[in-house]
Amino acid sequence: MKRIAVFPGSFDPFTVGHQNIVLRAMLMFDEIIVAIGENSQKKYMLSLEKRKAIIADAFKGVEQVKVESYSGLTVDYCNAEEAKFILRGLRNSRDLDFEQPIAQLNKKLDDSIETVFLVNAPEFSAINSSIVREIYLNGGDVSDFLPNGIKLEE
Ligand code: ADP
Questions:
Q1: Residue 8: which CATH number?
Q2: Which segments of the chain have a pLDDT < 50?
Q3: How far is the CA of 91 from the centre of ligand 1 (A)?
Q4: What spacing in Å lies between the alpha carbon of 18 and ligand 1's midpoint?
């Protein structure tokens, strides 16, 4: 059976930190679906199309990595995609505190799906999407934080 992992997130925007998690997970899974969660209650800086385009560009020509979007429960989406793993990155203990109950509840919702955490490489610890948004909205250069130095302008 193909080992498929879903990497869910807002990815507003997808950063080099996210990219590093996917690159390392490629050694563990046959296929990784970077799945942009669409939550109608949440406001995003970038359109879904733009968020998808950044990720597609980061993994251009890499068949093992796909980009999709979904709404609803992550475990339902995993089942629809026949994925048995949810991939998440951990930067620090705050991430762990946030992630632990989500992973435990997902396990309760579907015992057949495992959440797998990768501890991030230290050079990416300080990178998070909300700080990248803040810098960008204030006119700063965020290209060092984005895959392939991609520009956020449409
Ligand atoms: P969410 O809105 O679900 O928190 P994010 O897009 O912020 O989604 O992040 C998705 C996943 O990527 C989370 O598991 C998060 O911990 C992880 N992540 C975010 N930034 C980094 C980083 N710099 N290094 C490693 N993992 C990261």
A1: 3.40.50.620
A2: none
A3: 8
A4: 6
